[in-house]
Amino acid sequence: METTSFSSQTSHDNSFLTTSSEKSFRIRNNPTSISKKQSVTEKESRPSNDLIHTPVFNKNVEDRPLIDQGLDITRHKARLENRQVKDKSYYMGLLYRKGYEIGAEIKKLMKKIQFMKADQSTYISCKQKAENQASELKHLQAILSDYNLIDDMYNTDTDIDELIQELQTIKTENELENAEVEKLFELNKKKEDLIRELETDISQEKYVADILSETSSPNLKNRYKNLRKMDEELKVNQIKLEEELKMLKTKKKNLEDECISLGRSETYSLIQKLNEGQIKRDSLTKEHFVNDRSIMLKKKREYNDLIKCLGNQTRNVKLQVQKIQSELDSINKKSESVQAERVQKMSKLQNREMTIDNFLATYPEKQAMLVNQLTEFQNKIKMLLEKMSSQLNFDGLGGNRNDLKNGSMEEDKEQIAEEQKAKVLLKKEILELMAKDELEDRLEEEIMKLKEEILTKKNEIDNFSNTKDLEKQFEAKKKELLLQAENVRLQRDAYDTVIKDLQKKCETLESWLQKNDVNKELIKLEKEWHYLEQNNFEMKEFLDEAKASGDYFTVKDTVMDMTRQLNETLLEI
Asked: Per the database entry, which stretches of residues form a coiled coil (predicted)?
């Protein structure tokens, strides 16, 4: 096809040349052309590049711009732009030239399509390889996870019985899942058999319907035709819906492919990580001595941790023993103090009882004496009141005072002295009575308190009367505490022996590490590492200081503040 198109283009070009030469000869002999030759000769005399056709297809097809009609070809000056008459042959030449250009472009596009197909084929093969590698990677990851699980179990010292139990549980779960899968497979088979039976029934019914339609009346035929049309329309709708469903499925597949592409990128990253892990593993196998040192250091740390734990346990045991001994001492002190308090309180109670008994024995005699004194004082008061009333009556009758003065002065003095004595005695007796009432109230309160104390002390005496039981409890507790103390001592001795053995092992390991060359090299490297860290820290501080000093924003803020201040000063001026 390409050769035929090329030959047709060459024949058209030849015809174009013949026609153009004939027409140019005719145009030159025309009188109108002769008048215009003067203007044309100047142009023809110049070396024009218009006749030279520059190649259009140096650019790639992807880089060339597009328009609504297709590719936008860069426009050059036409070969026959300066023709005076643009007739049919001129436009035919333009069309042939454009066709040639389009043919060349089609060739290049076909080459691009072939390259794209080759890329697609390589992409499919790479895709299949990637899928195979991903499946292999999954399988290897599963194996690696199994090995990691075994390693973890070995490190954690898991029991074989637990592993056997887990294996049995997993087996039972697998058996249940296999039974479910078999059930689903049987159900699927049954459904497929039902579908086949239904398809055979449908074909038989169609055959019967065709026979009935041929043998039936015209009305039934028309009805059957209408139903067939309806059936066809429904089938068409079904086909359309199926096509839409296919489109949706394709969209779903595209989306899944995009997701898978993301998964592939993740797999590639995981493959890279796996390669890096393999490289690290190789480096670790080379650095076997370093690993041995790290293992020894780990063991040393474990032994130190054990020693610390044992020391903490011994300290706790000692503290417990001290607490128990302090409790025993406190119990002994409390029992002694309780006994001393008991003796003191009993003596106080006995003294109080003696005083109360004496008071109660003398109380009626004292009461009778006080009652007699009260009656005497009352009689005296009555006598004095009678005398005073008689004197007042005598003054009211108007007796001569001067006559009475000399005779009754002595009597008045005696009466006044007696009255004063009586008043003093009354005050004393009233005070004594008040004091006695207060004493009676206090005694009643004390008696009530003493009764309550007697009851409490009786209860305490009843509680402490069973001294034998208390002594038995005390002895039993003492025995238990002594047994605990002996057990603690035995544990302490065992821990001491273990600690000594571990210390010996640690000393041997430390001596071995000090003699080891790898340890010396590592110590040197650690010192160098600390020195480099110090240098890095100093460099960071220097950089921070340099950034702070050469910060653009701080300088900008200062400059802006200075400009504002200058503007304010200028405005003030």
From this structure: 160-258, 409-505
Token pair belonging to 72:
């936008």
pLDDT digits (tens, 9 = 90+) for 45-98: 343 333 333 444 444 544 455 454 444 444 444 454 555 567 788 888 888 888
Beta strands of 220-276 (E only): which ranges? Answer: none
Answer with the residue of higher pLDDT: 388 or 399.
Answer: 388
List pLDDT tens digits, range 310-366: 777 777 777 877 787 787 777 777 777 777 777 777 777 777 778 777 777 777 777
| C-beta of residue 64 within 8 angstroms of C-beta of residue 72 | yes
Listing DSSP states for 515-562 in one string gives H-HHHHHHHHHHHHHHHHHHHHHHHHHHHHHHHHHT-HHHHHHHHHHH
- Which tokens sit at 462? 């009843």
HEC string of 468-499? HHHHHHHHHHHHHHHHHHHHHHHHHHHHHHHH
- Burial level of 73, CB count in 10 A (0-12/13-18/19+)? middle
Burial of 93 (0-12, 13-18, 19+ CB in 10 A): buried
Is the torsion defined by CA of 177, 182, 187, 192 positive or negative? positive
Nearest one of 413, 414, 388, 391 to 401, comparing CA atoms? 391
The tokens for 330 are 């406190």
Q: pTM of the entire structure?
A: 0.21
In angstroms, rounded to a whole number, what is the distance separating the alpha carbons of residues 390 and 382?
A: 13
* Cβ–Cβ < 8 Å for 300, 509: yes
Rounded distance between C-alpha atoms, residue 287 and residue 522, angstroms = 12
